[in-house]
Design goal:
With 59 residues, the chain is mainly α. It has 1 helix and no strands.
């Protein structure tokens, strides 16, 4: 899983830091609430097949 954030800055970014420190301190939390069967079906039918599905797991 990747979470990519881009901030369009037109200024010199030297010396800019996050409140938590360097950019390496940035993080996010993920809570999985899928039912095991529903998640397994979407992985099998969408991710493993390399296709993009909607939230219902359909093409």
């Amino acid at each position: 899983m990747s979470f990519v954030i881009s901030y369009p800055l037109s200024a010199n970014t030297d010396g800019i830091t996050l409140a938590s420190g360097t950019s390496f301190s940035m993080h996010a939390d993920f809570f999985n609430a899928w039912k095991d069967e529903a998640l397994a079906a979407r992985v099998r039918n969408c991710l493993d097949q390399g296709v993009k599905c909607n939230s219902a797991g359909n093409f």
